[in-house]
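Reading a protein record of the kind used here takes little practice once its layout is understood. Each number in the token line that follows is a code from a learned vocabulary of backbone shapes. One such record is shown here in full, so that the layout can be seen directly:
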Amino acid sequence: METQSEATTSTEIGFVRRAQTGDSEAFAELVKMYQRRAVSVAYRLVGSIEDASDVSQDAFIRAYRYLDQLEDPSRFGPWLLRVVSNLALNFRRARRGKQAASLDDGLPVHEQARQPATGLRIQGEGRPSDGQSDELRAAISQAMERLPDKQRLALVLFSVEGMPQREVAEILECSVELVKWNVFQARKKLKETLKEYL
């Protein structure tokens, strides 16, 4: 019996194959399937929902234009997110000389454990006050901005988006071991930078 995941993959592969023949309705279905994740990844890298939407839209346009170059339809998701990531990193590099935009909400802090998705644990009892929350979000945002691109991207995809290391490795075009190293280094740097909050 086919599982829901297999059915989704089968449906997705069908959409990819149809889109590769020029079926724009099939591609529109792929956009629906991946739009939220594409915008989320772009947002974590560029720090602005407007810029993330622009980057994602550009990524979908490029994906449609070059879809015939995708040899394995089952790899559409990682392939698309590599396009999103590359465009987001290019956007960041282009604006690096200007004042960096803040990550409005920073990394999400889980309500009960109060643990950001980076794997860092915040000390203290109870919920932080609004002023403390704002200060923490700003500190996390600044710390994330200072990470090297590959480390930031590995951390965002693996720790924030919850993607498997194998898929992150495919997006970053590197080994799983290098993904683990980048995530480890990113967390280490964040812990050092944010030590007064830990």
In short: The two ends are 48 Å apart (CA to CA).
